[in-house]
């Protein structure tokens, strides 16, 4: 009986050795998963330049170039006249749904929006190299409150 067990074990061992010597087909390399495409983002931008063709053409060009560089971002520009803009902005902020970007007058109007918590702090953005080249330091005074910057002068 012991002899039969030894023979069976030797056969199993031999089969394992033979199996180990047979060339194995290479495993297909795991393909790296492509990163998901960036999420689509829509920015709503309110201007006070309704009917001002030279300005509108300029902003159309800026938006077109921006969207080429950031294809996942769509900029929806809304042009208004001054009084409609002021009324609409005040109402949208009171409702908690302001536009993502908007033209602003510096000073008191912007400060009231900052105090109400409707405006993001752009101080870090203004320290980037491109901003130092483009934004004149003298132009940020009207949008600086509490040692923080809240607008990019145009």
UniProtKB/TrEMBL annotation:
InterPro entries: Bact_solute-bd_prot1 (IPR050490), SBP (IPR006059). Pfam families: SBP_bac_1 (PF01547). It comes from the Bacteria. Gene3D superfamilies: Periplasmic binding protein-like II. This is Raffinose/stachyose/melibiose transport system substrate-binding protein.
